[in-house]
Design brief:
Blueprint: H1 25-36, E1 44-47, H2 51-67, E2 72-75, H3 78-86, E3 90-91, E4 101-104, E5 108-109, E6 115-116, H4 123-132, E7 136-139, E8 155-159, H5 164-172, E9 177-182, E10 199-205, H6 212-217, E11 222-225, E12 227-228, E13 234-236
The structure holds arabinose-5-phosphate (A5P).
Arabinose-5-phosphate (A5P) binds next to helix 2 and helix 4.
């Protein structure tokens, strides 16, 4: 059942909005439209998070509505699940055995195609869906390209809340970490709480080495990191 005729942010019973000004919106709209063109009837599509992914979900909804396509979306966050539901797409409750392709954004992309993700706090599911997809589209406009990974964004690290004091201490002891902060919420008191019921530490690195992703993941209490390396993807920009 289509909840409303999907056309643009701001519509629907929840007043579907991104919630903040979208940077580089024209470039992101163009990327969203070209991703939506890839969809074919019956496909299962992983949907990343961030404003580019949000615009892409809206574009997929428009195509599905106009052409009667049956598309199933595997969402990486609550906000993307709500957006997909609002524009009439099928929303998978669990990651199915076959994900034909996925799209997701990034906060930074370095010359070796290493990524920083997780500004939106959805890094755990983003990694699962990215890994599950048979083909990956990275929807990251040119503003996301950096020479040095970590130059503009800290690395988000998802942590079990019961272990956050110890994890904060452990991350602070990393050789190239200059600062670690607990991410605080905007519309709620206290820290951001993720879809998994966890909290986020943002670690500012002076240099990110090839070992740091694995070292973070090996730290007790750490459940996920926003450093994504070793993935093959097609970049749309
Ligand atoms: C979300 O957690 C991030 O990994 C996003 O992919 C990233 O923040 C991209 O954001 P925009 O598309 O809003 O630039």
């Amino acid at each position: 059942v289509t909840v409303f005729a999907p056309t643009a942010p701001g519509e629907g019973p929840l007043g579907l909005q991104w919630g903040a000004a979208i940077s580089n919106q024209a470039a992101k709209e163009a990327i969203a439209a070209s991703v939506a063109e890839r969809a074919a009837d019956g496909q299962v599509i992983g949907a990343g998070s961030g404003s580019t992914s949000f615009l892409t979900v809206l574009a997929l909804g428009r195509r599905a509505e106009a052409e009667g396509l049956q598309l199933t979306v595997v969402p990486t966050s609550i906000e993307i699940a709500l957006a997909a539901e609002a524009v009439g797409l099928h929303v998978a409750a669990v990651v199915p055995g076959l994900v034909h392709w996925c799209f997701d954004g990034a906060d930074e992309v370095d010359p070796d195609d290493r990524l920083i993700k997780g500004r939106g706090g959805a890094l755990l599911r983003e990694r699962v869906v990215f890994a599950a997809a048979e083909h990956r589209l990275l929807v990251a406009d040119d503003s996301k390209s950096v020479e040095r990974l970590g130059s503009g964004f800290p690395v988000p690290v998802e942590v079990d809340p019961s272990w956050v004091v110890r994890a904060h201490e452990a991350l602070g002891a990393f050789e190239h970490v200059a600062e670690v902060t607990l991410r605080l919420a905007g519309g709620k008191d206290g820290p951001v709480v993720t879809e998994g019921g966890n909290v986020l530490l943002d670690a500012t690195f002076t240099t990110i080495t090839a070992d740091d992703e694995a070292a973070l993941l090996a730290t007790p209490g750490v459940l996920g990191t926003g450093i994504f390396s070793g993935f093959d993807f097609e970049r749309l920009r």
